[in-house]
Write a structure and sequence with these properties.
Belongs to the TRAFAC class translation factor GTPase superfamily. Classic translation factor GTPase family. IF-2 subfamily. It is found in: Cytoplasm. Keywords: Cytoplasm, GTP-binding, Initiation factor, Nucleotide-binding, Protein biosynthesis. This is Translation initiation factor IF-2. By secondary structure, this protein is an alpha/beta fold. The longest helix is centred in the C-terminal third of the chain and has 22 residues. The chain starts with a helix and ends in a 7-residue tail after the last helix. The model has no long low-confidence stretch (mean pLDDT 87). The structure holds guanosine-5'-diphosphate. The site of guanosine-5'-diphosphate has 16 residues, from helix 4.
């Protein structure tokens, strides 16, 4: 084995460790096939997702997002739809703004995301959550396709979400539906009326005209999509809103994607975990279960989850805390990785990326006169992009305290005719603080000027 490793260019001893790829390469040389056993993490055990069987799947309501240009009537439309179609039989409930609501048409439910615009849609997609089945693009009939309309169309298209166009404000005297249809064709949305595939519904959020037609069309598109979920399993959903409520603690609106969420269920969403203490639906009623596509406000999280986080109901509650803690550690590690320390070698890139606006420096020199001279000449290098700022100056060797200060302030250390002591050296390596030593002021100025321009010669 050692000989084979040597032929692969690896000097190893009988005590060396090798990775799986190398091991399987060497084993292959001997005609042996290796199999890698990957240990399950707590997360894998906690969130085990068995695939659903076809017969377990049941029809679920479509989830709809309304997007479009500002002032074209997104909010008005959401309000009007809700007013006119409060879930039949549940009328009388007080409408509750929980981030999404359901309406009913001919016994069929539709879920609307209650935050208009594509910001929420994009923010959630950025987190890997896609909760929208159908996008309604609103265009004001007396205006036309505007920049945000185009953005909305592009977002829906890139997410592969079918589009229905609602041409709004048709009650206005200067409404011109034909003109809007013409503009739609210019954006690859050929109206059905003209032989295309895009459903266009003229509506008025003011009078309510066309609203029923719009809902019918939503149900029609949903029918084609065959939206299904398995209600007989532990719930999985998306956090669509969350906040800290003074009286109730962390509160989050969950849109159930599949399964049924029940009070008492153990839950985890991002780094928040807990147990469903209570659930409130979109008309302010306490409910004990939430079905697929149903939005509910959930109380019982350990902390406020983040919108876009995926919620899982889980069987064991002992593990959920552990998994949440592990996720937290992972998050911290990622943040730390992003917080790269400033260094002269990389200064130009960091400036260019906008990560640095102040170049903080700590100056240590052998005599007070030099400290001042170095400080003044370096601060003079400030330009429009970066301000060079001496955050600490002193006489004497570079100490561990200097390093810790530089680390906290993301500064580099300039030593003039001085050296770091042993403790400082170790600390600098640990904290990744860049220490530069000079004997001539001019050389320090030259280096920093070059670094700011991205022309510092690499140090060997
Ligand atoms: P959003 O920015 O897209 O949410 O638009 P809003 O819903 O806030 O509506 C912008 C303005 O248009 C408001 O003054 C509404 O009253 C008005 N508006 C919205 N829909 C209609 C409509 O169908 N007819 C008329 N006449 N006005 C409307």
């Amino acid at each position: 084995i050692l000989k084979k490793l040597l032929l692969l260019g690896m000097m190893s001893t009988i005590n060396s460790q090798i990775d799986f790829d190398t091991a399987s390469l060497v084993a292959g040389e001997f005609g042996i096939e290796l199999e890698q056993k990957i240990e399950k993490t707590a997360e894998d055990i906690l969130i085990e997702e068995a695939p659903d069987l076809e017969e377990q799947l049941q029809k679920r309501p479509p989830i709809v997002t309304i997007m479009g240009h500002v002032d074209h009537g997104k909010t008005s439309l959401l309000d009007k739809i809700r007013q006119s179609k409060v879930t039949e039989g549940e009328a009388g409930g007080i409408t509750q703004h929980i981030g999404a609501y359901q309406v009913e048409l001919n016994g069929e439910k539709i879920t609307f995301i209650d935050t208009p615009g594509h910001e929420a849609f994009t923010a959630m997609r950025a987190r890997g959550a896609q909760v929208t089945d159908i996008a309604i693009i609103v265009v004001a009939a007396d205006d036309g396709i505007m920049p945000q309309t185009v953005e909305a169309i592009n977002h829906a298209k890139s997410a592969d979400v079918p589009i229905i166009v609602a041409v709004n404000k048709i009650d206005r005297p200067n409404a011109n539906v034909q003109k809007i249809m013409q503009e739609l064709t210019e954006h690859d949305l050929l109206p059905e009326e003209w032989g295309g595939e895009t459903i266009v519904v003229p509506v008025s959020a003011k009078t309510g005209e066309g609203i029923d037609k719009l809902l019918e069309m939503i149900l029609l598109v949903a029918e084609v999509q065959e939206l299904k979920a398995n209600p007989d399993r532990l719930a999985k959903g998306t956090i669509i809103e969350a906040q800290l409520d003074k009286g109730r603690g962390p509160v989050a609106t969950v849109l159930v994607e599949t399964g049924t969420l029940r009070t008492g269920d153990t839950i985890i969403a991002g780094t928040a975990y807990g147990r469903v203490r209570a659930m409130v639906n979109d008309i302010g009623q306490n409910v004990s279960e939430a079905l697929p596509s149903q939005p509910v406000e959930v109380i019982g999280f350990s902390e406020v989850p983040v919108a876009g986080d995926i919620l899982h109901a889980t069987p064991a509650d002992k593990l959920s805390k552990q998994v949440a803690e592990e996720r937290k550690d992972k998050q911290k590690a990622e943040i730390l990785k992003k917080m790269t320390k400033v260094s002269l070698d990389d200064l130009f890139n960091q400036i260019a990326e906008g990560q640095i606006k102040d170049l903080n420096i700590v100056i240590k020199a052998d005599v007070q006169g030099s400290v001042e001279a170095v400080r003044q000449s370096l601060e003079k290098l400030s330009n429009d992009e970066v301000r060079v700022r001496a955050i600490h100056c002193g006489v004497g060797a570079i100490t561990e305290t200097d390093v810790m200060l530089a680390s906290a302030a993301n500064a580099i250390i300039i030593g003039f005719n001085v050296r770091p002591d042993n403790m400082a050296q170790t600390a600098a390596e640990r904290e990744k603080v860049d220490i530069r030593l000079y004997r001539i002021i001019y050389k320090a100025i030259e280096d920093i000027t070059a670094a700011m321009k991205g022309m510092l010669e690499p140090e060997f």
